[in-house]
Write a structure and sequence with these properties.
268 residues; alpha+beta; 6-stranded antiparallel β-sheet; 4-stranded antiparallel β-sheet; 9 helices
């Protein structure tokens, strides 16, 4: 077992794709991340040896080493997991695969009950690229490049004077009615595939596109965009100048899970 409670373990944990991304966010934007007690379980034996500790960890992801291609996600509703079942699925995909366990600072929402999924791509000193999907969707679409409903580009030196009234001036894309119908159809199929009742999904994913509310963008502006200017010198010092912060909203706040570095993010 590897845990962020051990400094020695942290460096080993950074060698994994998704775990490293979560550690990046906890390092530079600790107030944004909802993740705590981040832990890696390497196999079934490891789980049983640490079962008392692991039984208190309620959320999971799967992962593999950065020396290998990123592992396909084992999708689910997002909570209510069977760890042994996940370990078996992970090992069937990749013998070096691991299960990442953690707790959340918030009560997790249902996958359809979110205002937005957002990816903020940052090129320090150059600009910020934002891809987003709206109500009924989450970070899956934008982090995997599967879909986008709204897109923005903000030059670096415009961030200082940016406010919520000016934000739409930087929008470069808004999904059309026809494209949204296609997007919604794909989302409904996905939600059904992870066990969400079709009637619930049909009700919760809007039939007509609803733009992302201003209060969500205000949160992104305050907690990420303005914060970037404060962190600029530190990010440059550590060579962390090309990255993306990706995740979904919980309630009225953007609560991303991960911060991809340039090895994991394709810039425009």
């Amino acid at each position: 077992m590897l845990t962020m409670k051990s400094r020695k373990d942290i460096e080993r944990m950074k060698k994994y794709h998704r775990t490293g991304d979560m550690i990046n966010l906890l390092t530079y934007f600790p107030e944004l991340s909802p993740i705590k007690d981040l832990t890696i379980i390497e196999n079934e034996k490891d789980y049983y040896e640490n079962i008392d500790y692991c039984s208190g960890l309620k959320a999971q992801r799967n992962d593999t080493l950065r020396s290998k291609p990123s592992m396909k996600s084992i999708e689910g509703k997002g909570h209510g997991i069977n760890i042994l079942d996940v370990i078996e699925k992970v090992k069937n995909i990749d013998k070096d695969g691991v299960v990442v366990l953690f707790n959340l600072t918030n009560k997790p929402s249902e996958r359809y009950d979110r205002y937005a999924g957002i990816s903020v791509g940052v090129s320090v000193g150059r600009g910020v690229y934002i891809d987003a999907v709206s109500k009924g969707f989450d970070g899956r679409e934008v982090s995997k490049g599967l879909d986008v409903h709204e897109r923005y580009y903000i030059p670096w030196f415009d961030i200082k004077l940016l406010n919520i009234q000016k934000l739409k001036e930087y929008r470069t894309y808004l999904i059309s009615t026809d494209k949204y119908v296609e997007s919604r159809s794909k989302r409904l199929e996905f939600l059904k595939s992870v066990g969400i009742d079709e009637k619930v999904a049909l009700k919760e994913v809007p039939e007509v596109y609803e733009e992302i509310p201003e209060f969500i963008w205000e949160d992104v502006l305050k907690k990420i965009l303005k914060r970037l200017l404060v962190l600029e010198a530190e990010l440059k010092m550590f060579g962390f100048t090309e990255f993306a912060i990706s995740g979904h909203t919980e309630g009225k706040c953007f609560m991303p899970w991960q911060m991809f570095d340039k090895s994991r993010y394709n810039f425009k």
